[in-house]
Specification:
3 helices, 2 strands, about 10% strand
Amino acid sequence: GRRVNAIPRTKIEKYWLDQFDANDIQAQLLVQRYSLFIKNQRSLQTEINKQGVQIVVKNGSQTFNKPNPLLKELRDLEKEIAKMEKELGKRAEATAKAKPKARQGLV
């Protein structure tokens, strides 16, 4: 398959930060945390790509395959990222509603 280039984290951060007032420290912290989670998600995905979705486990003379434990970590992280995206979206909506609308049609 064709590799899709990931959106740079700086671009993602800028997108979200542009949605909020520059003085909204809580929103900025949420964006920083979100960005870190994206970084961790990408690192986990890279490791899974290297190791495979199944790993070989040796227990004494026995050898068997089992699902890569990083898959669970990735799933958990993706759930957190989805929650953060929802929260960021709600905050951005509230910020947009609070901004005074530009008056149109007046010179």
